[in-house]
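#structure-requests
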Amino acid sequence: MNNLLPHITRRTFLLGAGAVVAAVSLAPHKLLSRNREPIQRTIPSSGELLPIMGMGTSRTFNIDDDPIVKAQLVEVVQEFFDKGGKVIDTSPMYGNSESVVGNLLKITGKHDKVFAATKVWTDGLQKGIEQMEQSKQRMGVEVIDLMQIHNLRDWKTHLPILREWKQQGRFRYIGITTSHGRDHEELERILAKETLDFVQFTYNLEDRIVESRLLPLAADRGIATLINRPFQRGDLFRKVKGTILPDWSSEIGCRTWGQYFLKFIAGHPAVTCLIPATSKVHHMKDNMEAGFGLLPDAAMRRRMIEHYESL
């Protein structure tokens, strides 16, 4: 695509959707040792900066009261914030994940650091209102930063109340989501005509369909993007199992396949924030490291695709 990121060095910001300002160029080894500021992208509707690496909670945060599992998640959340993370995305669809997020924010004392994103996932106006009020209570935040309509469910009913509550200051941003390629045609129609701050969909090395229409449309319409399923629910790792990371990927600071997969996505200029989900501290460390240093330009991204497809 002709709108791929041309060059990213040291500290990069996406100003609006598709515009890039590149700073001083540094060799990868120098950059990794000197620059510990996370890469950030701009929310087009406001100009607010977000770290490009966020965190999802699907499956990973739907836990019971097991103290060992809870202690592991405390470490995961602490590591996320220690490495400059802000965006935590959850949903009522994910079992008790909202409540777990709220509890972990309380334990770690990070309610003032989080960019809290959740969703409405039900039918009907009153049920939607009740669910959104419950989400706020579960997460323990004064204001939900981003409320999204989950998988387009009853979106015509929910969108007016989302706009009203944003106007009242209950939400800072509003958006809509889908995943694993569903409902792209309807989503495209919605993005083309409705005013939204965010859209969330799937994008990764295995599933690149959004490159053709949805990513360019989001950029044109000034809509920030959240990227779910960056590892295609583990399919990418299964494909590369037993293979060696290509030497040339070190040019952008890749040390693992996980960083290879995440940096490929982050290299697209219309991507605002990735939300990989994990319940393991070492995976969180690896994910967050991908949000620092260099990102691939258009030529490097094509090379990454070719190598992955050759395996």
